[in-house]
Design brief:
Oligomer: heterodimer
Distance between the termini of chain B: 25 Å
Order of helices and strands of chain B: HHEEHE
Number of strands of chain B: 3
CATH class of chain A: Alpha Beta
Structural class of chain A: alpha+beta
Structural class of chain B: alpha+beta
CATH architecture of chain A: 3-Layer(aba) Sandwich
Strand content of chain A: 5-15%
Number of domains of chain B: 1
Helix content of chain B: 10-25%
Largest sheet of chain A: 2 strands, parallel
Number of strands of chain A: 4
Order of helices and strands of chain A: HEHEHEEHHH
Radius of gyration of chain A: 18 Å
CATH topology of chain A: Glutaredoxin
Helix content of chain A: 40-55%
Chain lengths: 153, 69
């Protein structure tokens, strides 16, 4: 997602990361109890995972996250009038790039004076399952995260 | 805004179905074509910003939601 942000920055596409709550709280990164802690975890995300996009932190009660459906790692694309153009219950850079490249093309076609109107499409997209990477992330949170995930599924 | 019970439930302490499943509300989220609601957010320097204002400053804005864990 970071490289996608860099690739489309010149097309007037902004990319941000919105910090929510700990989906798999554990020994190293426990559940949040204060904004100070939330800022600390968000900075760790930047420093350890190398998120280079601007990180914005939600309120402690997750007001924004909850209003958008509270999925743990979703992605949305908006136009400048806050209109939802894309909503994905899971983040997949390939899926996001397909959409953003289409939107950039739509903008170009409009500049070429094509008359375009939107319509709704519903579909399923598909992503690669990175079980090894996922478990590596859980282990980084602490053994509790691994144990609870195994017990939940 | 600080509803302590809500804050505790939202920031659940264990990944167990009875604690995380109630928050999975994808079907209730804004639909494509509608205007997304605005909320205050904070940058890492702890300055208050507005999601809507951030979105209004670019042709398109990609917003990834997530956390360290």
């Amino acid at each position: 997602m970071n490289s996608l942000a860099e690739k489309y920055a010149d097309e007037n596409v902004n990319s941000i990361f919105l910090y929510t709550h700990e989906a798999h709280p554990a020994e190293n990164y426990p559940h949040l109890t204060s904004m100070e802690q939330k800022f600390r975890h968000a900075r760790a995300l930047r420093d350890i995972y190398g998120v280079s996009r601007p990180i914005l932190v939600d309120a402690l009660d997750g007001a924004c996250h909850r209003a958008y459906g509270s999925m743990p790692n979703m992605t949305w694309i908006f136009d400048k009038n806050k209109r939802v153009l894309y909503r994905s219950s899971w983040t997949d850079a390939i899926s996001v790039e397909k959409m953003i490249s289409e939107l950039v093309e739509v903008n170009q076609r409009r500049r070429n004076r094509e008359r375009l109107t939107p319509f709704e499409v519903e579909k399923l997209d598909f992503r690669i399952i990175d079980r090894e990477g996922f478990y590596k992330g859980l282990a980084r949170n602490g053994p509790k995260a691994v144990k609870e995930f195994d017990e939940a599924f | 805004m600080e509803n302590k019970d809500l804050i505790t439930r939202y920031n659940y302490d264990s990944f167990v179905p009875e604690k995380f499943q109630p928050w999975m509300r994808w079907d209730e989220a804004p639909k494509a074509g509608t205007q997304g609601p605005d909320f205050p957010l904070w940058d890492l320097d702890e300055n208050k910003v507005s999601l809507g204002k951030v979105i209004s400053e670019s042709l398109y804005t990609i917003v990834e939601f997530g956390s360290f864990t």
